[in-house]
Amino acid sequence: MITIPYTTALTTLFSYGLLFAFGQLRDLFRKFVEWWKDSNLHGYAPICLGLEDFYVRRLYLRIQDCFGRPIASAPDSWIDVVERYSNDNNKTLKRTTNTSKCLNLGSYNYLGFAASDEYCTPRAVESLKKFSPSTCSTRVDGGTTILHVELEECVAQFVGKPAAMVTGMGYVTNSAILPVLIGKGGLIISDSLNHNSIVNGARGSGATVRVFQHNTPSHLEEVLREQIAFGQPRTRRPWKKIIVVVEGIYSMEGELCKLPEIIQVCKKYRAYTYLDEAHSIGAVGKSGRGVCELLGVDTADVDIMMGTFTKSFGSCGGYIAASKEVIEYLKFSCPAHLYATAISPPAAQQIISSIRVILGEDGSSRGAQKLTRIRENSNFFRSELQKMGFEVLGDNDSPVMPIMLYNPAKIPAFSRECLKRNVAVVTVAFPATPLLLARARICISASHTREDLLKALEVISEVGDLVGIKYFPAEPKKQDDGRVKLE
Ligand SMILES: *[C@@H]1O[C@H](CO)[C@@H](O)[C@H](O)[C@H]1NC(C)=O
Ligand SMILES: *[C@@H]1O[C@H](CO)[C@@H](O)[C@H](O)[C@H]1NC(C)=O
């Protein structure tokens, strides 16, 4: 739960109000000019939706230089950001051939597998030569290579479930599989801050969707009890099935799921659990097996385990791991398996290889070192940010740490000032977050060195003072703690 300081909320609302008012005024003017020029296509409804279109034109475009910055390198701990310029007040941005080397605090490269890796890269290159970039076919036709079979076995074993199915895109894993698992007459109970892929999957399923307060098991129980007592709308028949959908780490909050308590509630009411581990698999837990391992939950208690390969494994695609029966059923009925082209073979090989490294099956201890490092880096960075007086969301051990910005003017200011100092950060605002809760989202990687982190802290502190986002008083530094030891 985020509590906004009263004055911050007021000034933030005022800023958005002002932007909105000016935008409306300009739109009014535009309409008048268009009417005058008589250039409108008569008889057609506008193709872009009203309020979203307004938001894009009048708010987003003003700060579009902070988003979609082209990158000219792998998303390693340092990246080459392509420099752009504008001749029309940032309405259009033109690329230069210059790049600037920036410290990367934005990619989900939790274990550092996004960069060239001594074990993974040669194997991925080998598979590229052998299998080509694409299977040019769906899984059920000619798109199942031996790599795909190996990958599914490897993933099932890694996450601790009897079987797994892999898709070529993480987003689609949620949005295409939920509608296959549940439909009309079913009930989905979804955490209020679940990812858009879950929201769209739930809506597309035709099931009734109810939302419970973010990460609040007691409210989940309340909703479950109420819904079970009431049954389906109108007919009041019992629900055909109930699925509770939660995430392991909430990517916009950096928070860990209260999984043990949620599972307890689900078991009590005989509801299935669906756990999205996009940001937690590989990143947390002693051997990288995600929140179940971290929080001591038996994977047998989670009915459907979902995750993506786009973060810790430095690849693409997603998986569903469950019982053999469920996976078999999904493979017969899920459109992402039946009709979509299979995951690219080099991407599959990258996942297999990175899992081997994580498990130490490459014959080195690099995987274990990466896991220790991501935890140490995350906890160090989070505590330092908090000491400086930033409002940082999320839990210890989570590599995602949002720094609250709130005010719309502070979004571009923070992003641009950091970039000027060669630190690339990601800022997120509405519609990805509620209107008042804009933030910068820092993602820490195992590939960051202590020097990288110290540089990042120095820049963020300086920019934080400049932009005015240290909402708490800083903790006074201890005398002997003034210098952090370099490794
Ligand atoms: C355009 O973007 C640059 C940085 O990318 C920024 O410094 C400048 O203030 C922006 N200009 C306007 C008019 O927003
Ligand atoms: C590229 O960088 C060089 C050296 O910093 C500078 O002189 C040049 O103007 C830049 N080019 C563009 C297109 O911005």
From TrEMBL:
E.C. designation(s): 2.3.1.50
Subcellular location: Endoplasmic reticulum membrane
Gene3D superfamilies: Aspartate Aminotransferase, domain 1, Type I PLP-dependent aspartate aminotransferase-like (Major domain)
Source organism superkingdom: Eukaryota
Domain Aminotransferase class I/classII large positions: 101-460
Cell inner membrane listed as a keyword: no
Annotated pathway: Lipid metabolism; sphingolipid metabolism; Sphingolipid metabolism
Catalytic activity: L-serine + hexadecanoyl-CoA + H(+) = 3-oxosphinganine + CO2 + CoA
Main location, first listed in the record: endoplasmic reticulum
Names of the cofactor(s): pyridoxal 5'-phosphate
Residues spanning the membrane: 6-25
A single MF term (Gene Ontology): pyridoxal phosphate binding
InterPro entries in UniProt: Aminotrans_II_pyridoxalP_BS (IPR001917), Aminotransferase_I/II_large (IPR004839), AON_synthase_class-II (IPR050087), PyrdxlP-dep_Trfase (IPR015424), PyrdxlP-dep_Trfase_major (IPR015421), PyrdxlP-dep_Trfase_small (IPR015422)
Membrane topology: Single-pass membrane protein
Family label: Belongs to the class-II pyridoxal-phosphate-dependent aminotransferase family.
Full protein name: serine C-palmitoyltransferase
Gene source species: Papaver somniferum (Opium poppy)
